[in-house]
Amino acid sequence: MEALTFSSEGAEPVKLGAVFSITGIAATHNEPLIEMVKLAADEINNEGGLLGRPVRLIMLDNKSTPIGSRLAAEQAVRAKVAGVIGAHWSSHSLAVAPVLQQAGIPMISPGSTNPKVTRIGNYVFRVCFIDSFQGAAMAKFAYADLRARSAVVLRNIDEEYSIKLAEYFMNAFKRIGGKVLLDGSYRGKAVDFADVLKETARLGPDAVYIPGYTRDSGLLIKQAVSIGVKATFLGGDAWDEIHRYGGNAVEGSYHSAPWHPDVPFQKSIHLKKIYRQKYDLGIKNMSAPLAYDAFMVLADAIKRAGTLDGKRLRDAIAQTTGFNGATGIISFDENGDPRDKEVFILKLEKERAVYYKAIKP
Fold it and tell me: Which of 5, 97, 103, 354 is the most exposed place for a label (fewest CB within 10 A)?
């Protein structure tokens, strides 16, 4: 599916790919990021495009699976795009990255936090923090701020994101003196979590860390509260709009996030303004601005490179330093990861995610 965001007589468009979940289990989670990519493309085109040419956004559906992600990446190669935004979920980017690396096409993931993603090759970048920092930040917050001394961890064993984020949290929590009472697991499509939750209730932890996606995490918490689990629930950056599945049960929980409407960055203020002008709504998804930043970093690199040549464009992305993004200042390290991105801790109150504090690397 191609979305032509601008047309200009006689000018060959700059084709940029966007690999996201348009259909399947991740579609609801990806939809706000797709909106942001389109918003960014419109903004660039309204300012005259790139290299004097309009931008054509090639939307590619990964169907919410790793196999679909690989096929979408192969479509991007056949379409001869200059660069790719996506994928969002780590398991999807782990399938996309090898294809684009081999083809010499740079990709920038908005939210794939698993450290393995950018280790695939030097054409692979991301604008989000990584799970080793995110997991450790939440462990530190649980121990120091919430005074939690014991925790149960429940991870989705069908998702690499959840598996590794759980490990980073547990390692950090134990290192600073906490006790992990249970390393529990569940399957991604599960709807009944009775067995692992009964054991959680029996153990009586101070905190329960659930580094899953919105649907499964929300259902887990709802069922946990219903059987009497009294712990404080904690999560990662994939808990956007968790009230949809957890209802009132998630009130008082905390999760890490890459952005919040209250962050003071000038580009964030700008993004909130143009988003409201287009959609007449505020930004509710805390990961969505990462997609805007990923597109704008790619656009900025194209301008600086002055060409769509894959290697020169890759080099320009790698040299990105001090880029003012909606989610903070972006400068890439030698692995293609952003340096010094903060983790924002949010508290769920009155069906909203409220800014609580920032944790720096």
Answer: 354
The number of domains in the chain is: 2
* 97 within 8 A of 74, measured Cβ to Cβ: no
Note whether 269 and 121 are same-domain residues: yes
Secondary structure (DSSP) of 283-301: ---TTHHHHHHHHHHHHHH
Q: 185, 196 in Cβ contact below 8 A?
A: yes
| Integer Cα distance of 148 and 44 in angstroms | 47
pTM (2 d.p.): 0.90
Residue 352's domain comprises 132-257+344-359
Token digits for 322?
Answer: 């001090």
Task: Please indicate, yes or no, whether residues 16 and 111 belong to a single structural domain of this protein.
Answer: yes
What digits encode the pLDDT tens for the residues 281-338?
Answer: 999 999 999 999 999 999 999 999 999 999 999 999 999 999 999 999 999 999 999 9
Q: How far apart are CA 36 and CA 1, in angstroms?
A: 17
Are residues 64 and 25 in contact, defined by beta-carbon separation less than 8 angstroms?
A: yes
Q: Does one domain contain both 313 and 236?
A: no
